[in-house]
Amino acid sequence: MNAPRPQAWHEALHRLQSEGLPHALATVVTSAGSTPREPGARMVITEDAVCDTLGGGTFEFQVIDAAREKLARGESGMSLEAFALGGRSGQCCGGFVNVLLEVFPGSAATLAIFGAGHVGNELVRLAAPLPWRVLWHDSRDGAFPAWAEDQPRLACRHAPDPQAAVAALPAGSHALVLTHDHAEDRQLVDALLKRGDMASIGLIGSKSKWASFRSRLTDAGHDAAALATVRCPIGTACGGTGGDKTPYAIALAAMAELLPLVGTAERADQRGLDPAKLRTMFG
Predict the structure, then answer these.
(1) Residue range 167-220, pLDDT digits in tens
(2) How far is CA 260 from CA 109, 227, 237, 263, in A?
(3) Is 109-262 in CATH node 3.40.50.720?
(4) What is the DSSP letter of 52?
(5) Nearest-angstrom CA–CA distance, 238 and 23
(6) Is the peptide bond before 233 cis (omega within 30 degrees of 0)?
(7) Cα(129)–Cα(36) distance, integer angstroms
(8) How far, in Å, CA of 96 to CA of 55, rounded?
(9) XdhC Rossmann domain: from which residue to which, for each copy (predicted)?
(10) Where are the domains of the chain?
């Protein structure tokens, strides 16, 4: 039986970006003297795999180590790494290589949606173009639509146990609770509040539903500060739906409310490589 063909860097890059998984792209941008590969050579690096090559040897191992250190620290963005083949790299080529490291920490956010009803379907469709990982839960058998199969960055999870489903979420997830059952909604909000490490929690429903939930959740031991972190009804922070209660309108308002909560860590006034470093390199 033939072994599977190793993935080229562009195939690996497409797969990892589609799945929203952390990875780094290393590109040789300049070289001088005798070097293993030419400018334009690329390699994709993850926590536990490497696709393609920059030429091998100690130089390549150092590139991999540099990329994995950044991935482990959760860094993102670009950096320029310099390698003297014979100095830093301990190789006898005697050349000099600059490598551009582009680190992608994975999906910009994790959105956990509980409920595969009409609003849940619209939420997942609206989230599809965004660089978010979506974890879609429902306690019922056969609740997920056929179109959800093999969607990038989407995982459908049969979740009959609310406590276990919440326990499996990554820290810092944004959660939206909109199941078919009010009792299940309350169990989920209770479990999410007990976690204490969710980025945000939204609950579908009316003000009267939240008043009832708030009373029960207070009795369960949640204080006013914790309860104030729950948005209910969802979508009202952005002006609501204007009276339109169709699933699409509710989902649209909920997503508009969520977008500024996800935000971005990128500085608006400086993106990419440090201009001062580029001036030094090319000056």
Answers:
(1) 999 889 999 999 999 999 999 999 999 999 999 999 999 999 999 999 999 999
(2) 12, 20, 11, 5
(3) yes
(4) S
(5) 34
(6) yes
(7) 39
(8) 13
(9) 111-258
(10) 9-106, 109-262
